[in-house]
Each structure stands twice: as structure tokens, then as C-alpha cells.
Design goal:
The protein contains 13 helices and 16 strands. The strands form 3 sheets. It has a 7-stranded mixed β-sheet with strand order 5-6-7-2-14-13-8, with helices on both faces. The longest helix is centred in the middle third of the chain and has 23 residues. Strand 5, helix 3 and strand 6 form a beta-alpha-beta unit. The protein is an alpha+beta fold. It is globular. It catalyses: an acyl-CoA + a 1,2-diacyl-sn-glycerol = a triacyl-sn-glycerol + CoA; a long chain fatty alcohol + a fatty acyl-CoA = a long-chain alcohol wax ester + CoA. Pathway: Glycerolipid metabolism; triacylglycerol biosynthesis; Lipid metabolism. Keywords: Acyltransferase, Endoplasmic reticulum, Transferase.
Length: 470
């Protein structure tokens, strides 16, 4: 779409927004709210008009190109009815729950493309009960609109505390996972190790993004066009108190525990498939990290201000992390090895500037070769790795949407050229892990069982062996 009048432009599309909405990538985020009570959708139009649209001009804008061919956000009049979907499921006598129909519907909307002729979001109101909820509200937002931090902020602007709407939602303390080692620069060794880690990590990341593909395994088909294939989406719930118990006993961080559980569960799944060689395969996780210097979620008003630490948009980096090998005999006795290995990897990555150099590389590619070439580089980065892991922090208190208490929330990134995507969000003392798997390549029930077994084994081992071995 060509822009004729430059004064109609709301704002330029960010570089990352251009990458995520290009000829080679179209990535969206599904945000799922589980309602504790049957859904009354009569307030939908007023909620969107009065609360959701004012959050950010991008929700009322489309992407256009100016006379120089640069993508811009252009404000348009929004026909809200075009963005609201209330599906009708086929029912049979005696149906009480609609889990399969709901799962099939998530698969369907994960594959559909958001029309470029209107603002890049839509909402799906599912009134049918499942075993998890009395109804669901699913927001689908294009990743070009913003990253997980921005999108979470937008959704939270539509929600209130269920116990007392006059009180603000509160969140666990957030720390910037990308901060460098606090001792870096204070000693020759720290400076040297930081330099070595940066060169090593950046060089490896560059190879993985260019030509070094992961092995084809039970979690990676490696097929071209995998992003256009149907996916299964399912969730696993862990108690945060139990994760904190593991953290305390092993003297690690919560991120170390979660990463270790996911990695161990993934290798257990590879073993369960009967392909023993895959337990030692070259498999890499792409871990997405928020690059904001933040200590908690900001209000939407603060996020749209010109503050580099809180502003709206896509502000994240990624690191490549090798999934540790499964040494069967040892790991059956000592499953917490994966937690300690995750701790060592994350600690080393913190003492590295590879994430920032990767950002500079993308900016250089965009400047000299254009956003489409940069998008192809990002697609190769995703395609050549085995899985993506991202996480967000949700509120401590229960939320409500238009007086509908939310019993749970989770999100999923779709349109990614990978067979396995994992996202996590905390809410009301629980950690909700959502898993997206390539249908027909990964067995969702077996993978879920392996991750749950991983958690149980690590929890038991941490309770019995609270100290790290030599």
C-alpha cells in the first residue's frame, strides 16, 4: 500500500517491526485468557473502543510505504466488527467440554494471516467450556506491534484486579537478564574472560545464523516451510513455590531452574522416541531476552513516552544456548546436572556483549542491505536452531476482564520457522508453560509427560541433594 500524504503518518515502523512483517517472516502472538465464569460478550465493542484502542496508535494503524519505500504506521478508521470473532463449534448430544474443538481452533488461527489492509490484531471470544476454563478470550496481535513486554502491557490495560478494581496489579521484581557481570572491568581476568566470551559467543551465533544448522531430531524436522504447518498448542503448570524450593536448595536462580527443567525434559523426550543418538545431538535453543533496563512493568502511558528503558515497541535480543547432552546413567541419578549446566551457561552469557553485537549486526545489515535482507538473516537464525524459549512475568493477584475473573493466562508465538516453541508466564503463584509443536512431528502428550517428569525428578533430587557437587 502506497502512502500519498506524508502528514498522515503516525510514526515510522521500527526496524524489528519491519523484520517481523516482511516477505519472509510474519510472526504473531496469541494471548489466551481463561475465564472462570461463562462469557458475556456484550461489553466487547465498548471495551475495545474505550480501553484497547486508546492504548497505542498502532492498534488503529496499518503499515504503508512512504515515497521512499520506507514502512510507516498510518492511522485509519477501525471497524471493530472486522476484528471480533465469535466461533460456533460443531456440537453433539452430551458434549460437556470442548477441549478438542478449542485446540483445533487455536491451530486454525495460528496459521491464518492477519490482513494487511486493517490494523494487525484481532480478538476471538470462545464461549464453549473446556476442562481448564468456562470460556476463553484470545487476542492475536502481530509481533510488529511490539514485543512481549509491550503486548503484555496492552492486555493489562484492559484488565483489573478481581478483588478490588481500585487497586493496581502488582508484579514480582524483574531483573534485567542482560546486565553484564557486575565485576567486569575490575580485574584483568574478568576483562579477559568477558572479551573471550564475547568473541566466542558472537562468532558461534554468526555461524548458527548463517550456515551451521542443528541436527534433524525428534524436536526439529528441519523442513522448509515448517512455519506454514499446523501446530499443537498445550500447556503445563508448575507451582512457583516448588520452583523456589529448587532454587534455594541448589543455590541457583529461578531462570536456571526453569531452563534446566525444559532442557532435561527435551532430552528425555528425545530418549523416549527411541532415537538414542538424538540424546547427544547438536541441538540449540534460541533464548529471547528483554533488553530494557527495567525493574517492573510500567504503565502504558509510561511505555509510550520517549524513554529508552520503557518505551513501546520491540526491544529484545537473543542468545544461542546448546542443549546439554543426556548421559543416561548419570542423569538418572543426578538430573539436577541440567540446572547447574544452565546456570553456568547463563552466567557466562551475562559476561558477554554478544547480544549487543548481534543487535549492531542487524542494524548494519538493515542500513546497507535493507530490512528484507535482515529479515532473511533472522529467519535463518530461527530455522537453523531447534527451539525458541521466551518468558514474561504476570501479576500476583487474580485479574478480571469486564468482570470476568481470569483463572489463567498464557501466550504463544506463531509463524516461527521451527518445530518447537516454548513460552512461559507467571500468574497467581503458578508458572504456565505453553508449548507449540509441529503437528505430526512431535507427540504433544509424550513431550508434556517428559517435561513433567523432568520437573518431578529435579524437585526430588533437589530435596535430597541440596548442595552442588564438585
Amino acid at each position: 500500500m502506497e502512502l500519498k500524504q506524508e502528514e498522515e503518518v503516525a510514526e515510522p515502523v521500527s526496524p524489528t517491526g519491519q523484520y517481523f512483517n516482511s516477505s519472509v517472516l510474519s510472526i504473531s502472538v496469541l494471548g489466551v485468557l481463561e475465564s472462570q465464569v461463562p462469557i458475556d460478550d456484550s461489553p466487547t465493542l465498548s471495551l475495545l473502543q474505550d480501553v484497547f484502542l486508546p492504548v497505542n496508535p498502532r492498534f488503529s494503524s496499518i503499515m504503508v510505504r512512504d515515497k521512499h519505500g520506507i514502512k510507516q504506521w498510518k492511522r485509519v478508521k477501525v471497524n471493530l466488527k472486522d476484528h471480533i470473532n465469535v466461533p460456533v463449534f460443531q456440537t453433539t448430544t452430551g458434549d460437556q467440554f470442548y477441549d478438542q474443538q478449542f485446540n483445533d481452533y487455536l491451530t486454525k488461527i495460528s496459521l491464518s494471516q492477519l490482513p494487511q489492509s486493517r490494523p494487525l490484531w484481532e480478538i476471538h471470544v470462545i464461549k464453549y467450556p473446556t476442562r481448564a476454563a468456562a470460556g476463553h478470550v484470545v487476542f492475536k496481535l502481530h509481533h510488529a506491534l511490539g514485543d512481549g513486554f509491550s503486548i503484555m502491557g496492552a492486555l493489562l490495560s484492559c484488565l483489573q484486579r478481581a478483588d478490588d478494581p481500585s487497586l493496581p496489579l502488582t508484579f514480582p521484581l524483574l531483573r534485567n537478564d542482560l546486565s553484564l557481570n557486575a565485576e567486569g572491568g575490575k580485574g584483568i581476568w574478568n576483562a579477559f574472560s568477558g572479551f573471550f566470551n564475547t568473541v566466542s559467543d558472537f562468532g558461534w551465533s554468526l555461524m548458527k545464523s548463517s550456515f551451521a544448522e542443528d541436527d534433524r531430531t525428534p524436536i526439529r524436522s528441519g523442513d522448509e516451510g515448517v512455519e506454514f504447518r499446523p501446530i499443537d498448542i498445550f500447556t503445563i503448570t508448575f507451582c512457583l513455590d516448588q520452583i523456589k524450593l529448587i532454587k534455594s536448595n541448589l543455590h541457583v536462580t529461578i531462570n536456571d531452574v526453569i531452563t534446566g527443567i525444559i532442557f532435561f525434559g527435551t532430552r528425555l523426550y528425545m530418549q523416549e522416541t527411541g532415537q538414542d543418538h538424538s540424546t547427544k545431538s547438536n541441538s540449540t535453543a534460541l533464548v529471547l531476552l528483554n533488553t530494557r533496563n527495567i525493574s517492573g512493568y510500567r504503565s502504558v502511558e509510561e511505555m509510550v513516552k520517549p524513554d529508552p528503558n520503557t518505551k513501546w515497541g520491540n526491544q529484545f535480543g537473543f542468545i544461542h544456548v546448546s542443549i546439554p547432552e543426556l548421559m543416561r546413567a548419570a542423569d538418572e541419578i543426578y538430573p539436577t546436572k541440567f540446572v547447574f549446566e544452565a546456570q553456568e551457561i547463563i552466567k557466562r552469557k551475562k559476561n558477554s556483549a554478544a547480544v549487543f553485537l548481534t543487535g549492531k549486526l542487524l542494524e548494519t545489515l538493515r542500513k546497507y542491505r535493507g530490512p528484507e535482507a535482515t529479515a532473511r538473516h533472522i529467519r535463518n537464525t530461527l530455522k537453523n536452531s531447534s527451539m525458541t524459549i521466551s518468558n514474561m512475568v504476570g501479576p500476583v493477584e487474580q485479574m478480571a476482564l469486564a468482570n470476568h475473573p481470569c483463572s489463567g493466562i498464557y501466550f504463544m508465538v506463531v509463524g516461527v520457522p521451527q518445530s518447537l516453541t516454548i513460552t512461559m508466564v507467571s500468574y497467581m503463584g503458578k508458572l504456565r508453560v505453553a508449548v507449540g509443536t509441529e503437528k505430526g512431528h512431535i507427540d504433544p502428550n509424550k513431550f508434556k509427560s517428559c517435561v513433567q517428569n523432568s520437573f518431578d525428578m529435579i524437585l526430588k533430587a533437589a530435596a535430597n541433594s541440596p548442595s552442588q557437587p564438585n
